[in-house]
Amino acid sequence: MSSTSSNDGRKRCKCKKSKCLKLYCECFATGFYCDASCSCHECFNNPDYEDIVEESRQLIASRNPNAFSSKIHGLIESPTSNNVEDGDQVKPVAGKHRWGCNCKKSMCQKKYCECNQAKVGCSDECRCQGCKNAYGKKADYNVYNKMQLVDSEFSPNEFNNPHNLTPLTPFQHNGHQYDPLTSGTYISSSESANSDMMLGTPNQNFDMVTFDQQAYPNASMNQFTPPYATNFHARHLHSVMNIPPMMDLPSSSTASESCFSMISWPGSSMTPVTAFSGPTVMNTNDIFYTGGVVPCLISPGNK
DNA sequence: GAGTTTGAAACT
DNA sequence: CAGTTTCAAACTC
Ligand SMILES: [Zn+2]
Ligand SMILES: [Zn+2]
Ligand SMILES: [Zn+2]
Ligand SMILES: [Zn+2]
Ligand SMILES: [Zn+2]
Ligand SMILES: [Zn+2]
């Protein structure tokens, strides 16, 4: 615990030129102020510069309304923008930076790849080249001629499977090593992924894989669910342990199904909080699970 | 620790 | 949009 994460596990930045006011900074990006555990230089991401932080945040948000929408990363369609109704498909498009990684040289084998770092497989949304993501390769028939292969051609088993159902680090009890490619704990819940789903609309179900302290929805159904819909890139990792005070606790608790309860905060950004080690700002679309496990939600395909 | 590689974020 | 630059982390030695 020397330099990296401090007690709460949150990663700390070491920014030198961004002043911790850009998304380059993980602290800023995840809605936290920097603190003594950070090794940043010329940091403005602290309560003393609340105004500046907010200003920068808004600027970025104006550019990409979903920039701070955890996990979804633009997935949730914004009312106004970017719903491409193309031909017969309505594709939610992120404000920028479409879904998925864009790896050119790492073949998604290392943490240079966001998907890999998030411990999720690549999906069709990724534009990686020569994907070899250990957590699930992007379907490569895609690379060849997606357009020409017709479903009847390939066996679903072979192609559909590896792709998404390959999870990761599971519940790691101590000392149990485990192979990312084979094991994993699945929890499938039958909740819909719609905005109001949290109230139990039985619609589509999404699975999740539980990890240490997080849950990833497992995009098991190919194109409908991007893999890392949940915690993509640390910036999307909002830890449950840090819940801002003024959050609005809907009666959601009742909605919960199994051991999770959901909390969502209706929006508008709130004022940063320091005392509380929670994120300084929350986003409207964020949904959290309490109960040891975290995020998840989604369904891009949710038309 | 220094130096390189990498791809997201920012910028034009 | 695409091309380029900037950036901090991941990685290598
Ligand atoms: Zn920083
Ligand atoms: Zn920081
Ligand atoms: Zn900082
Ligand atoms: Zn990748
Ligand atoms: Zn990917
Ligand atoms: Zn990939």
Automatic annotation (TrEMBL):
GO CC terms in record: nucleus
Domain CRC: 9-136
Localization: Nucleus
Keywords assigned: Nucleus
GO molecular function ontology, one term from the record: DNA-binding transcription factor activity
First and last residue of the signal peptide: none
Keyword Nucleus found: yes
A Pfam family recorded for this sequence: TCR
SMART domains, alphabetized: CXC (SM01114)
Sequence similarity: Belongs to the lin-54 family.
Protein known as: CRC domain-containing protein
Lineage, opening ranks: Eukaryota, Viridiplantae, Streptophyta, Embryophyta, Tracheophyta
